[in-house]
From TrEMBL:
GO biological process: dTDP biosynthetic process; dTTP biosynthetic process; dUDP biosynthetic process
Residue ranges of domain Thymidylate kinase-like in the record: 11-191
Protein name (Swiss-Prot/TrEMBL): Thymidylate kinase
Name of the coding gene: DTYMK
Pathway(s) the chain acts in: Pyrimidine metabolism; dTTP biosynthesis
Record keywords, A-Z: ATP-binding, Kinase, Nucleotide biosynthesis, Nucleotide-binding, Transferase
GO molecular function, one term: dTMP kinase activity
Reaction(s) the record says it catalyses: dTMP + ATP = dTDP + ADP
EC number: 2.7.4.9
InterPro entries cross-referenced by the UniProt entry: P-loop_NTPase, Thymidylate_kin-like_dom, Thymidylate_kin_CS, Thymidylate_kinase
Similarity section: Belongs to the thymidylate kinase family.
Keyword Transferase: yes
Gene Ontology CC: one annotated term: cytosol
Length: 212
């Protein structure tokens, strides 16, 4: 009998919500309980495309807005063969940002609609679970200054938050909203219980296709 597939689990949210910390904690907890798990993140800045994106985010280069949107999407597509291979091997993937960040950040720019932004990512492996780490702008501000990268301003992040809210209305995606204002351990416990549930369900289901 073929081994059961791993689950594709995504963490989304505005900057400072604690995604990276929680992805690391989740992978560690899954591994310690004997479940194979690995972390991935988008953008993956290590590839050739990822380096172009990274230079753009660091403001070392300028790219036209449609162009950079398509590069973010291409950066996901180039990792799809590896993602599928790992999932088939029974490894659960915990992913820090995915197509939802892609759509929320670009559609927060003037002149971009949600529908155009979604198209390049249609057909990507569909996450079995997307957890949105919900943090109000006021709570985010209490966590200190934003960084130096592009998009890291409170005005832009408010618009990004509204775009995420629009995306969360889509019932074809398994969204779970997590209260990221709780303590790190409480957030971790919420995330772990949703993830264990998703892993159990996913092992008997084929991997889906996003937004199709
Ligand atoms: N971002 C991320 C996008 O604009 N489009 C995308 O498709 C993805 C995956 O890049 N501000 C933005 C969101 C973040 C930045 O930051 C990546 P980090 O700290 O590497 O997650
Ligand atoms: Mg960040």
């Amino acid at each position: 009998m073929a081994c059961k597939r791993g689950a594709l689990i995504v963490l989304e949210g505005v900057d400072k919500a604690g995604k990276t910390t929680q992805c690391n904690r989740l992978v560690q907890a899954l591994q310690q309980s004997g479940r194979p798990a690995e972390m991935m993140r988008f953008p993956d800045r290590t590839t050739t495309i990822g380096k172009l994106i990274s230079a753009y985010l660091e403001k070392k280069s300028d790219l036209e807005d449609h162009t950079v949107h398509l590069l973010f999407s291409a950066n996901r597509w180039e990792l799809v063969p590896l993602m599928k291979k790992k999932l088939e091997q029974g490894i659960t993937l915990v992913v820090d940002r995915y197509a939802f960040s892609g759509v929320a950040f670009t559609s927060a720019k003037p002149g971009f609609c949600l529908d155009w932004c979604k198209q390049p990512d249609v057909g990507l492996p569909k996450p079995d679970l997307v957890m949105f780490l919900q943090l109000s702008p006021a709570e985010a501000a209490l966590r200190g200054q934003f960084g130096e990268e592009r998009y890291e301003t409170s005005v832009f992040q408010r618009t990004v938050q509204q775009k995420f809210e629009q995306l969360m209305k889509d019932p074809s995606v398994n969204w779970q909203v997590i209260d990221a204002a709780q303590g790190v351990d409480e957030v971790h416990n919420d995330i772990t219980s949703h993830s264990l549930n998703a892993i159990n369900i996913a092992q008997n289901l084929p991997l889906g296709e996003l937004w199709k």
